[in-house]
Amino acid sequence: MKDQVITFAAICQAAHFVQQVSRSGQVDGDNLSILLNSIIQTSPESTLAVYGGELSNIKAGLELLIMHLGDNDKKSKVKDPEFTRYIISLINLERKLTKQPKQLAQLGDRIDATQRQLEHYPITSETMISSFASIYSDIISPLGARIQVTGEPSILKQTTNQHKIRALLLAGIRAAVLWRQVGGKRRAILFNRTKLVNTAKQLLSTI
């Protein structure tokens, strides 16, 4: 359950930062770095190691999980249907990806190639973000049911923001892959809500 909460929190965090970029064009550099680094962690020692080994790196995701899955009346007023749609879309896209071995193999190859680029560029550089974005466009988008990102039209028109959003969506897919690998299931979001929320609260209390 702990690993399921960590990975679901990471999906929440990716969706939240997609919203931030689409509405303001801004995202914290450290948070962006954590999510982009998660994409290239293909042989992690543990689930948390994918996110730098520190729960504080997914604190925002844990808080979002509690806010959106918790039944507190005050919290329910701030539940965001757009945010929920992004999460469901990421999980659905990941399910489609797992049924396409050819695309999965291509994804692995492309991620390996980005690791070679890291010898020359920082992970949050425009070059790297563009590489992650092109992986999403080339491999994930053609799977169907594209994620329609809404926000400020003037911000969404900017190529750098489009790249950031696609790179974050790729990080969301990475988190969804991990979530499934540690036993996450869509029905669990409905039927294990209390357990997920309580575990998230326990993890938050240790940060």
Instruction: Estimate the mean pLDDT confidence.
Output: 92
Query: Can you tell me the overall shape?
Result: globular
Kindly identify the CATH topology. YcfC-like
The tally of domains stands at 1
Tell me how many strands there are: 0
According to CATH, what is the class? Answer: Mainly Alpha
The share of residues in extended strands comes to: under 5%
How does this model look, in words?
It contains 11 helices and no strands. The protein is globular. The protein has a single domain (2-205), classed as Orthogonal Bundle (YcfC-like). With 207 residues, the chain is mainly alpha-helical. Helices cover 71% and strands 0% of the residues.
Keywords summarizing the entry:
YcfC-like; single chain; mainly alpha; 207 residues; 11 helices
Question: Would you spell out the secondary-structure blueprint of this structure?
Answer:
Layout: H1 2-24, H2 29-40, H3 59-69, H4 73-76, H5 81-98, H6 101-117, H7 126-140, H8 153-156, H9 159-181, H10 186-191, H11 193-205
Quick take:
By secondary structure, the chain is mostly helical. It has 11 helices and no strands.
